[in-house]
Request: fold
Amino acid sequence: MVMNEEKKKTILLADDDPDIIFQMKHHLERWGYEVHAVESREEAERYLEGACPDLAILDLMMEEEDSGFILSYKIKKCRPEVPVIISTAVAAERGISFDMNSPGSRTWIKADHYLEKGFKMEQLKLLVKKYLD
Amino acid sequence: METLSILVVDDEPGIRSGVRRILAGHRVSFPFMDDDYMFECREAASGEEALLMLEEAPPEILLLDNKLPGMDGMEVLEIIRQKKMDIMVAMITSYASAEIAARATDDGAWDFIPKPFTPAELKSSIDLITKQYFLKKITRTMKEEGKKIRYQFLSVLSHELKSPLNALEGYLHMIRDKELGSDLQDYDAVLDRSLQRVEGMRSLIMDLLDFTKIRLERKDEKIEQINLRERAEMALSTIKPLAIQRNISVSYKGGDVYYDADPSDLDIMFNNLLSNAVKYNRDGGEVEVMIRKKSKGVEILIKDTGIGMNEEEVSQLFKEFVRIKNSRTRGIDGSGLGLSIVSKIAELYGGHIHVKSIPEKGSEFSVILPPS
Reply:
């Protein structure tokens, strides 16, 4: 019996560090996802004009200190169903801590999960599975 | 116009209403203050009442009679000191005793107003207290701003140091887990990238050392007459290997120009400006250095035919750790400290730096140093 091959889920990956892009793309593809990687908020916005990913993983600091928030806000505004993960190395040392579970923070942060850089790939895998499978 | 609140504590109603009358409409202005100050008086008839009012809404200034029915002025002052309340206190005393004056000063009183006082005497005391208040406020703001800047610097710095570590860690995991298979050659790219990130971190640390050096005072004993052409040519020869790789021509135009400076300051400046001019250039481009003696000092001009910047990018340029991020700068490494170092050095000599730039055409950095 021939089954329709299930279409791969697409992930938008935005990070201004090409090495992080390389590494995350490698892992995400190995886990069976299609990855569209961009290195700036501007590029991500261009991509979003013509496509809709199943998940977005966004670096917080790109062109601006809060590029990830801006992007997340824009994604949620027109496609509220797309889950957004924001990753950053900035939180711990700046004393910013986000608690995505309190209703108050959810209203302004507009992202589904917040990931501190230096995370293990296994952690990422679980998280991506949670939103996509 | 700012209004300061004054609490007048005296058991004689005549004194309280007198103070209120004298200060109504009184304005304090000093040439160094942005704003005039006016006053609004409240009254308390005893020390106990005063303390309650202090708790509720602390005034900026307290005029405190020493001789009060219950607890006396000195006791009130003592409590204010213990509670570390930030209030300017002037004691009103009917018998000017040296002993009380000394004790009150120890406890943080700013001034004494002997009783009975004339309106002019009261006003001049208030003027003095207001001046002190203003200076205290300014000092506090400056301290807070200094702290904020230091904190920001450190947090950005740790972010900049963490990024290459995260990238390296990721690559090391990939190698350990043999993510790219068992053929060692397949890891060449990953290893090259790792080494590049290590190099980037090293140059960040070097820049940081330059940066902290400049943060310190300019060292007069190290200042000597130097030939700017020689320093520029030294920096040019350092950058040449990189320029040759990308077929960029580098040249010096002009003759000897002498200037009194610490040679290492000038070396840091030339190295930073020239390496930028090459790094952000196009292949086959040009870099030109010109140094001119001007009536008001010297001008160092560094022109490139590189990728240029728009106005917004130029406005960000001299801030610490700012790197212009766009499609043209992708893949160019840097700490984001170089230009802020250069501008700090220029300032150290009383000079400044400015930039003219056109996207896709090139940039022109000019450093103006006043006569040494």
Summary: Residues 2-144 of chain B form a domain with the Rossmann fold fold (CATH 3.40.50.2300). Residues 66 and 72 of chain B are 6 Å apart (CA to CA). The mean pLDDT of chain B is 85. The two ends of chain B are 43 Å apart (CA to CA).
